[in-house]
Amino acid sequence: MSQFNIEEEIKEIVEGEFEREPVPKSSWKSWKSFLGMYAGEHAAGTEFMIGPLFLTAGVSAFDLIVGLLIGNLLAVLSWRFLTAEIAIKNRLTLYYHLEKICGKNLVTTYNLANGILFCFLAGAMITVSATAVGIPFDMEMPKLTDTMPNGATWVIIVIIIGAIISLIAARGYDTVSQAANWMSPIIVLAFLSCGIVALNQLGVKSVNDFWAIWGEGSAPFPGQIKFTFWHVVLWSWFCNAAMHIGMSDLSVFRFAKAPSSGWTTAAGMYVGHYMAWIAAALLYAVYLKTPEAQTLLNTGEAPPVAPGPLANNAIGIFGIIAVILAGWTTANPTIYRAGLAFQAIIPKISTFWVTIVAGSIATAAGIFPAFAMKLLGFVALYGFILAPVGAIIVFEHFYGKKVGIIPFYAEEKKITFNLSVFLAWGISFGIFYFISKQFDIFLSFVTLPAWISCGVLYLVFSKILQKS
């Protein structure tokens, strides 16, 4: 293919992403498009890691079952009544929306941080897929405490998977959505099958037997923290804080016909973050009863969490395929979001190429297992950093006129650095991060206070500084 033809194809691929303009009515999509994407993205690679990691944190049956029920409901409500409402009114990407408020220079820093964190999250999902691809090659699986790659086979497999995922994400929202629609039914069926098989392997015959798997909880594994009921509620609410209260999914819901499309996130929360997490935890519960796992526990070492072998043990080759696809359906939209963040920094470069860059960073991150093995802590940090910025959009949207501040202030006054935004985020982040570290408080407990603080301070500083 000639260089001219290649450039024409790339132009055709990225056409219609509307990175710096409202999405026109001709490109609006029905709720079905979002249903498949959210079901696929959230019944996906992270679920194979998070379910077992709850067990390593020593949760009890009540904490897990009821805590997840409440936390996921709060997440759905956040998407529906905050993210989708604002997205439909403005139909802008998060990055362009923030640029209008913050100014080009300030939002560039945010976009860079946002894009890199998205890449690291996608890298963790590439790690998940690699644990399945490596099974036929008798590859050594990463341990729960591993940070570095354990061999050349691991590195090669991660690079190949990352390249494929990056190319799919680079083809734009339509391709990402279609991929999720194709894969999500297979993945959901696999999770359900894994859960049923694991229940049989655990000898569960009644509700009491099922409840006894977690019982009253246990001490956390070496290197893990103890999760209580409130850990589960707040973590499951804020594990996607950057997407809902952090407003990242403005970039997704700007394509929706109506705010009611926000309810489709329930498919991700209750099929993925509920059924799939519990099914994955059951797989790990089966593994913990094996002589290999018991030997490791007796020596004070945490048994590895490798989704590929866990699923393979339950449903064989179908499990391996499901884990591979699950990693893809999470990494695809995550890399797509990261590409949009980078594209906002360098708008003259096509979305296709910045998404390829994002995919390359994600692939590099996937080589290091630490991002996947420390997923509970990493996701809490990621939400804590990014979510308060979304409060600036939310508080301006709902309270800006009442307070009397100028909306889209940076665009209106043609400034590149909105000091109100910087002070609001910096003070909120600094105070609550200090509280977390000083008093050893898990970050999910201070995410909401930091978010509210950032929104309120933004209104206060804007009122003062816009007058001056």
TrEMBL record:
PANTHER family registered for this protein in UniProt: CYTOSINE PERMEASE, CYTOSINE TRANSPORTER CODB
Name this protein carries in UniProt: Purine-cytosine permease-like protein
Keywords: Membrane, Transmembrane, Transmembrane helix
InterPro entries xref list: CodB (IPR030191)
Membrane-spanning parts: 64-88, 109-132, 152-170, 182-202, 227-246, 267-287, 310-331, 352-372, 378-395, 415-435, 441-461
Keyword match Glycosyltransferase: no
